[in-house]
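Hi R.,

Here's the chain you asked about this morning:
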Amino acid sequence: MSGALLVVDVGTSSVRSSIVRPDGTVTNTVQVAVLPQSPAPGMVELNARSLADAVRSTAATVLSEGGPVAGVGIANQRASAIVWDATTGEPLGPALGWQDLRTVIQCLVLQGEGLRLAPNVTATKHQAILDEVDPDRERSRRGELRCGTVDSFVAWVLSEGTCFVTDATNAGVTGLVLPDVSDYDDRTLALLGIDRSTLPRIVDSSGIVGVASLLPGAPPICGIAGDQQASLIGQGCIAPGDAKITFGTGGMLDMVLGVDQPSASVRGANGTFPIVTTQLGGAKTWGLEAVALSAGTCVEWLRDDLGFFDHAAESDALASSCADSGGVTFVPAFVGLGTPVWDFGARGALLGLTRGTGRAEITRAVLEGIAHRGADLVDAAEADGGLKLPRLRVDGGMSRNTTFVNALADAVGRPIELSREREATTRGAGFLAGLAVGTWKSPQEFVEITSPEQRVEPTMDESTRRASRERWLDARGRAERTIPDLSGVEF
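And the predicted structure, written out as tokens:
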């Protein structure tokens, strides 16, 4: 049997299946768009039937061209909620995407009960779906329903209904578990009206948990991780102090802390969240996560709304056509600011415009502003984690933008190492699956085969960097509390 692995990677807008080879390369990728729908402002819905169809079709195509495989790994967008029939596997109504905000009021109401939940986690999304499809919870009590995140649904689909699990990296961001992610929290389940029997079993991130009987050869399902943790593993970040940022629609920094659970069970003083980076053999490795709500979406704004260029990649050449931004500063806060201030009332700001400001200067300012948000995440992670990051690994679509990466290196004041795989999630899930079936013997081998494609050193001296940061932080302060009523909302 080949030591290769099939990975099904479900993102926010597509399903991608690939083969991860024993040398760590990702091949035979087949990707199908499964776009979320927004029926009203703040609502983000997924068609779980389409998602299941895309899982089946992409996996079958990849195996026909690149198989056989020794096992199957799953990587997924986290916190999205799906409810389906336990017998037929038929989704009940639309799934709610992680960005869906329809439960904001319910989250505020629950604070009065002493339960602090953010609307982007799974908990109140499951409640909202159940209120529609099982209002009296009779079907739940009879064992007729299943409530899961995307990883659980994909495993169910691949196993034809015999495998109902979630791993600790996904369970830890549902809002339904105890702080140590050892089990579900009974008080939370009671307040939300979620029957324990409807929820998946929490398992290791690596280990055989079922059989993908839907697929030729029925390979074992043996690796599961949420997308950000999969990216962390996929870039060889396994030791305390290792960190990566994925720059996609937003920016997500994840840092490895070690075996000790962080003292902050909900949110640290500097706006980071504790996460489980992996669970292997029942033992958890902990980390923290910092979030920038706007990143690549700002480049899309320049392209789609302002018409500065036709393709996002063109932002690099346009920005590099000028030596600097001409004093223009941009704060990427279209939907508020995440870490460290968590100000939902902040809004984007473009400061320092003159009559001489052109498309190039604004584009450069946007890229530099996103880089400074990356520096915000690094500063917060170091403060909450108590560790100094010697370097930063980067993946995601923006990692191929040279102007942006250079600005990031200067803003954080340390080397940036670029992943060979633009989307490292697939490789990370493949590593976890391969660890379970012997393709690799230990996580240390991941480090040995994930050397970066390029290392970018900062060019600013420290005094210049600090002055640049101070100017940008002043601009960020001006963007905060643009809508005071929203700024007062905390989750």
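The radius of gyration is 22 Å.

Let me know if you need anything else.
M.
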